[in-house]
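Convert to structure. Protein one:
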Amino acid sequence: MKKTLLATAIAGAMAASGAQAATVYNQDGTKLDIYGNIQLAYYDLKDENGDGQDELTDNGTTFGFAAEHVIYDGLVGYLKLEFDDIKADEMKTDIDNDDSGDTAYVGLKGNFGDVRIGSYDSLIDDWVQDPITNNEGFDVSDTYVGGAEETDKVTYTSPVFSGLQFAVGTQFKGSAESENVTDSGDASFFGGVKYAVGAFSIAAVYDNLDTYESTAGEYTGSYSIDQDSGQIVQDDDSEARDEFGDRYGVTAQYTIDSLRLAAKYEKFDSDFENDDIEFAALGARYGYGMGDVYGAYQNVDSDASDDDRDEVIIGATYNISDAMYTWAEAQWLDKENDEDDGVGVGITYLF
């Protein structure tokens, strides 16, 4: 199932359907919008033994605020705050975790570009992974670290110069933060470049993942890549390691009317022996008027095990109204006992 509900995905769906956020204040250069959605889904997936397991669950219900104000001509300050740990199926919230949610940031934008600080999706997620599958329920595997990956970041994104744009940033984890695996502050580096000409665009991103390094003798666990999910996870019972690795990827897109085609290569280049993992994927999405149909194929090539596999995801959406749509998806992940193969259906209301 998808790891986050991106604000950009919400905005895109709202723009496509005609639904609008509610502007509650717009005066003297200051604007405040309130927006949100309720998402419910039914999933039927196979477990590690090949037995079917089903549930009716929340699928990423979100409530958010977006504000901006003009500081002076050509310079705008802004913020976005989302609560996306609302459990619509159980009428409760889980917002006491410091890393709950994925969107809470402030920034400045103008002719110089955009500077943002706070909690938001990673650059490799936005520029490399999402064009393949930013689906309602199922996404192909990728090098996703976890909830802490979205937090404590600063990013500068340049204006577009003749189709060329770049972004650079860092994630900082101080010594007082529980998710920091060292006894001192640590900062990572990530950066990317995009180029668009006509209907074609290409993006490349690098992230050194330095905030996930561990220091031998000071930490009883380590991080490694989960070969089933493609996520980078903490191994609490393993010995400490003082290295981790890098990740990088490149995605090309081509749009023909309502059809978007995308191709991706992504790699986790591990500093551990025989832990590299590569992802090569193709994706397509077609807007048929009342919704989208889409699909993706990905080959996962792992050095750490014999778990090389081919993943396939297909899906479709249908717009019931300007603010409501339904969807259905299916995935085949080529795991032992068909683990995690299954289907999902759901409904979303946006405002």
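Protein two, convert as well:
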Amino acid sequence: MATAKKLPSHNYRVRKYDKWTKKYVSFTAPDPETAENMASEWAMKNKRRRCPKKEKKHELTVAEAVRAYIDSKNNILSPSSIRGYEIIYRNCLDGIGDKYLIDVEEKDLQEWVNRNAGKYAPKSVKSQYGLVTAAFRQQKILLDFSSVLLPRIKRSEPLIPTTEQIATILQMVEGTPIELAVTIAVTMGLRQSEIAALKWSDYDGRTLNIHAAVVPNSENKLVRKETTKSEASTRIVEVDELCKQRLDRAEHKSENISPLTPRHVLKSFQSLCKKNGLPQFTMHAQRHGNASMMLANGIPDKYAMARLGQSSPNMIKNVYQHLYADKQAEYNKSISNAFSKIYDTKNMTQENS
């Protein structure tokens, strides 16, 4: 730590060398302790500064850094991811967006998180924080990001249709405009984006070739992209008998198997759910339902993941928890019966001897 020197004016001064500007910076105060503290505080901030590029000498604000990060990933990330980032950029940087990166400290990030936690869901705040910290890292600004506390995400059980409800769903959509979309979701577990991208040319009478998706872009307009969510999502899935019957008898009114938009399908589906006394299931819940059917029938996790086009087992684990909750009483009874059987067998053995 630099020592303050007394000046003829009776003030005290500390000089620090700025390696970025190649000049000395002076800190003057009426007492040596204040001057030294001023110099130390500057040194801490200056340590985090990035070396300014020759073509861009001015520092970036947080909003500018976020903008630069989004633009740098524009052709790498999915349109839906970019769309989410654009929403954060436009709406969620209040209180921090106009600050220069080198002036931001951990407490500033914490205050920003605290404010947003009062307006957004915990999961949304986590996404906002992830984008901002990624922008910091891209600009080589190092902070102790782990010291910032985020709101805790409350774990909730997904609403998954039971076997009886699945039967009702398959019956109620028969003959409706959403018959194929819902049947494919229920029996094959495809995502809405994948169903919307399916063309009749992807169906060979036995399998469906999943290789594209329809997703909203940064302007919230639906676009078709010739890639799926992940490498594991690009797959060929065998069609079950019920789905095959409905596909084979359907009219080819357009090149798409389901010409309706995902939003239209969901709205019509939930309307039918209401009429038939079912919960307001989402279309994604049918994907969970498909997973639960596979697990309940002893399909190995690895095969279930491949059929669903998953690169991680997270959703499978969630469905496992759902099944355990539904069958807990049954499992408890089975265990109880097992111990009773052991006890009865021992008693019978003793009596016979």
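Residues 50-58 have pLDDT under 50 and may be disordered. Residues 149 and 184 are 42 Å apart (CA to CA).
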